[in-house]
Design goal:
The chain is of the alpha+beta class. The chain folds into 2 domains: about 250 residues, Aminopeptidase (3-Layer(aba) Sandwich); about 110 residues, Alpha-Beta Plaits, CATH 3.30.70. The chain contains 8 helices and 18 strands. The longest helix has 20 residues. Bound molecules: zinc ion.
C-alpha cells in the first residue's frame, strides 16, 4: 500500500487501465466493457451502482450513488466514458509516458478526469468519511455526439442536485470552466428544378446556386463581438457538371453566449427562405446544448473551489469556452463547475496527453470539494 493516497503513479496506472479499453461512442460494446470495469471499482465502496441500458446505438450509462446523503440535494459529478477516437487508434497513440506527459486516446478528454473523481470518492470512503452531501456520479456513453441518449438523465439529476461538478479537461495551465457557449445544429435542404445544362438551361433552377445564397446569409450572421459564430461545415449538392442541380444540402453549427442570442439566432436560421422562385429551402434543427452562463451560484461555487485550491497550494483560474459539454445541461438550474479534470493538451488529436504533475492536485481538489460542499 502506498503512503500517499493520491500517489500520481498509482493513479496513472488506473487511468491507463481505462484508456486501454478503447471507447469510441459508436462502439457500444467497448463503452460497456469500460462501464463494467468502472462499476467493479465501486463494488467494495458504500455506494449503489445502477446501469441504464444503452439505446440508439450508444452504450450504457452508469449511475453511482453514495450510500449517504441521498435524501437531500447533493453533489452530481458528470463524466463521459466515450471518446472521439475510432477503434484501433490506440495503435497510433499507445499509452506511454514521456517526461511529464502521459499519452493515450481519450486520456485528456476525459478518462483522466473521470478517473480522478472516482479516486477522490474512493479515498473519501476509505477514510470512513461521510461528508454532509451525498455524491452521485454519472458516467455516460455518448457525450462526444451531443449526449442524445443521456441528456434527459443529466437534466433530471442536475435539477435534483445542489452542485454539479464536471470532469472535462482542465485547460491552459489548469483553468476550470465557468461558462460555455450554447450549441445549435441545423440541416438545410434545398430543392430546385433539374435541367440539361447545355440544351435547356432556362428550364432549370439550381439548388446549388441557392445554396450559395444560403451560405452568404448564414455567414453574415457571424458576430465576433457578441461571441456569435455560425459555421457552414458540410455542403453537398448536384449530380454531374452538365446537370443543373436539383438538390443541395448543408450542415450548420451555431454557437451563442446567451439565451437571448440563442432565441434570436435560432429563429433567424430556421426562418431562412429561398431567394429564387421555383427553389425551396427547408431548415431543420435546434439548440442542442443551451448556453452555460456564469450565474451567481456558479460563481460562488468557483470561489469556494478557488479557496480550496489555494489551501492545496495552487491558484485556480477560470475561463470561458465556445466548446459545449454536459455542464451546459445543468448550469441554468444548478451551480455548475466544469473543467475539473486533469490538465493536458491535444484533445481529439493524435498527440492527446495529460500532465502527470497535475494529477495529484486535481484529485485532491475534487476530494476537498466532496468533503466541504454543503
Ligand atoms: Zn469531453
Amino acid at each position: 500500500m502506498t503512503s500517499n493516497p493520491f500517489d500520481p503513479n498509482a493513479i496513472l496506472d488506473g487511468i491507463r487501465r481505462w484508456v486501454e479499453i478503447e471507447t469510441p461512442t459508436e462502439a457500444p460494446e467497448q463503452v460497456n466493457k469500460l462501464a463494467t470495469l468502472v462499476a467493479d471499482g465501486y463494488r467494495d465502496l458504500p455506494a449503489t451502482t445502477e446501469r441504464i441500458a444503452g439505446k440508439d446505438g450508444c452504450g450504457d450509462h452508469l449511475v453511482t450513488r453514495s450510500s449517504w446523503g441521498q435524501e437531500q440535494p447533493g453533489i452530481l459529478v458528470l463524466s463521459h466514458l466515450d471518446t472521439v477516437h475510432p477503434m484501433g487508434f490506440i495503435e497510433r497513440l499507445k499509452f506511454r509516458t514521456e517526461g511529464d506527459s502521459a499519452f493515450g486516446p481519450g486520456i485528456y478528454d476525459m478518462k483522466g478526469g473521470a478517473y480522478i473523481a472516482f479516486q477522490a470518492f474512493r479515498q473519501l470512503c476509505r477514510n470512513g468519511e461521510r461528508p454532509p452531501l451525498g455524491i452521485t456520479h454519472i458516467f455516460t456513453s455518448d457525450e462526444e455526439i451531443g449526449s442524445p441518449t443521456s441528456r434527459a438523465l443529466i437534466e433530471a439529476e442536475g435539477q435534483r442536485a445542489k452542485y454539479v461538478l464536471v470532469t472535462e479537461p482542465a485547460r491552459d495551465g489548469g483553468k476550470v470552466v465557468t461558462g460555455r457557449k450554447g450549441v445549435g445544429r441545423f440541416e438545410v435542404f434545398i430543392k430546385g428544378t433539374p435541367a440539361h445544362a447545355g440544351s435547356r438551361p432556362e428550364d432549370g433552377r439550381s439548388a446549388i446556386r441557392e445554396l450559395a445564397n444560403v451560405i452568404d446569409t448564414l455567414e453574415a450572421l457571424n458576430d465576433p463581438k457578441r461571441g456569435v459564430t455560425v459555421n457552414v461545415g458540410v455542403v453537398r449538392g448536384g449530380t454531374r457538371p452538365n446537370v443543373i442541380a436539383e438538390n443541395a444540402y448543408a450542415e450548420v453549427d451555431l454557437r451563442v453566449p446567451s439565451f437571448a442570442d440563442a432565441d434570436e439566432l435560432v429563429a433567424r436560421i430556421l426562418s431562412l427562405r429561398s431567394r429564387t422562385e421555383g427553389v425551396s429551402v427547408e431548415v431543420t434543427g435546434e439548440l442542442n446544448r443551451p448556453p452555460y452562463e456564469k450565474g451567481n451560484a456558479g460563481a460562488a461555487l468557483f470561489e469556494h473551489a478557488k479557496r480550496l485550491a489555494a489551501d492545496l497550494g495552487f491558484e485556480l483560474v477560470d475561463t470561458y469556452t465556445g466548446g459545449g459539454s454536459d455542464g451546459n445541461f445543468t448550469a441554468a438550474h444548478t451551480a455548475t463547475l466544469d473543467g475539473l479534470g486533469v490538465d493536458g493538451k491535444g484533445a481529439h488529436t493524435h498527440y492527446e496527453q495529460i500532465y502527470i504533475s497535475s494529477i495529484e492536485p486535481r484529485a485532491r481538489l475534487l476530494h476537498r470539494l466532496y468533503q466541504t460542499l454543503r
